[in-house]
Design brief:
Elements lengths: L2 E9 L3 H12 L4 E4 L25 H15 L8 E7 L2 E6 L4 E9 L3 E3 L12 E2 L2 H4 L9 E5 L3 H11 L4 E6 L8 H8 L4 E5 L1 E8 L3 E8 L4 E5 L2 E4 L3 E3 L29 E3 L11 H20 L2
Parallel strand pairs: 1-2, 1-5, 5-16, 7-14, 8-9, 8-14, 9-10
Antiparallel strand pairs: 3-4, 4-5, 6-15, 11-12, 12-13
Helix pairs in contact: 1-2, 1-6, 4-5
Amino acid sequence: MAETPYDVMIAGMGPAGITAAIFAQRLGLRSVVLGDIPGGNLYMIESLMNFPGFPGGVPGTQFGAMAFQQAAQEGAEFPMARLERLTHAESRFHGVDANGQGYRASAAIAATGRVPKRLPVPRASMKGIHFCSICDGPLYRGQRAALAVVGSDNAAAQHAVSLSRIADQVLLVCRSSRLKMDAAHQRLIAAQPNIRVMVGHEVAGFEGSDVVEALVLKATGGEQHAVRVDGVFLAIGWTPNTALFDLSVDRTAEGYLKTDARLMTSFPGLFAAGDVRDTDMWQVVTACADGARAARSAAEFLETR
């Protein structure tokens, strides 16, 4: 299999990966970005409200498309295929995408982000359980639906507010004793009369045949009861997407890639940016900053070779 040579191979087309491509190209590096969705998980964000320069907010899909266009104009190459495997041999990184195409590069940037978690309860994969309110919420339009959102952070709030425009009732289920979202999102939740918040409850299971028909909730005191719902949207956390890296790399207990001050991992020449790395803030703006820093560090690494 012939491998196309590059200076830097970037895994991931989210904010971190695309920003890394922009900066890599501007630093004179030939870069290839592996992924199949411009903007990555940005499509899950209905309106990105906290990115500088967009005072009225910007749809996540639009932001991702604009960033993708900018990186392409800088000369970054986008095969529009996910990276399936990354290895290292003979002082080069070797990658294979979903189409079987091979690539090689002297440096690599992991920007593969995270994937949403499922609930560790029986029947957690049945139909009617979703992760993206923007993608799947419209399925319930005009049905006078009762929908549930499971989670307590800003992502859960965005799901609930988005779904409140579609459903008759939205139930926001939070396992902890209080919501963990910021004050701005709590005000949004409070302003929607058809959102009901239930703190101190966790999901013990689902009821239904092939499609979810009810949530089984367990209160802090141990009592269980079922609540009828037409659909469930999960916002309970994430798992770093690192299975494709067939390399010995230091990770946290949760699986996030550890990096030094230059965003290089324990494997020389492999850098990490955005949600896939060990960080204390998972935001679009910090992912973009990571991408820029990783590209610069990759350029400095290549200069020493």
